[in-house]
Amino acid sequence: MILPLNIPAYPSFTDDELVAFCMANPDIMVERDEHGQLHITMTPTFVLGSSNNSELIIELGLWNRKYKTGRVIESNGGFFLEDKSMRVPDVAWIHIDRWNAMSKEEKRSFPRMAPDFIIELKSETDSLRYLQKKMAKWIENGVRLAWLVCPDSQTTYVYEPGKPQLVVHFEETLSGGEVLIGFSTRLSDILEY
């Protein structure tokens, strides 16, 4: 469940204030939309969703370990995006050249960049409409490939800039295309739903 958070004394946080707020409240997941509205994701997640998210991270991590082409980011890594939002995907991947170009300070905070690839995993309490809008925002802000994984319908919505959205069923093979070269998976093999 995602809840809007209003703090009357602070109509909007600067990036530094948002980082400080997140560090002072480590038990909640905070995102900021492009209008400055804070959104709180209620934690903890149910064990099935947590297990499925772990499987997605493992699948991507095993491929990444083999090819060593980037860095995998788990569900606590946030990113300041071009539209002034701060988003936190369930899984992210950054190409190694972009990772190596980041300073230590950027790696120890929320970098001002869009990951190359992200996954959002729909939970039982998530709104599909909200997540689809969020996926469009990821793409508008520079993500090159994004998957919205929906266990309840056993489908994945695939987003890429300048291309129509694809719907891939869990029994079909998902490809990393030109972003995750050599990566493919069948979610029916790794997820429980």
Helices and strands, in order, run as EHEEHEEEEHHEHEEEEEH
Q: Quick one: overall form?
A: globular
**What's the main sheet like?**
6 strands, mixed
Number of helices: 6
Distance between the termini: 19 Å
Radius of gyration: 16 Å
Q: Residue-averaged pLDDT, rounded?
A: 93
Content-based structural category: alpha+beta
Could you give the count of β-strands?
13
List segments where confidence is low: pLDDT < 50 over at least 5 consecutive residues. none
Q: Could you estimate the helical fraction of the residues in percent?
A: 25-40%
What percent of residues are in strands?
A: 25-35%
The largest beta-sheet arranges its strands as 4-7-8-9-10-11
Q: Summed up, what is this model?
A:
With 193 residues, the chain is α+β, with helices and mostly antiparallel strands. It has helices at 15-24, 47-67, 96-101, 104-107, 128-140, 187-190; strands at residues 2-5, 29-32, 38-41, 70-73, 79-80, 86-87, 91-95, 117-121, 145-150, 155-159, 166-169, 174-175, 184-185.
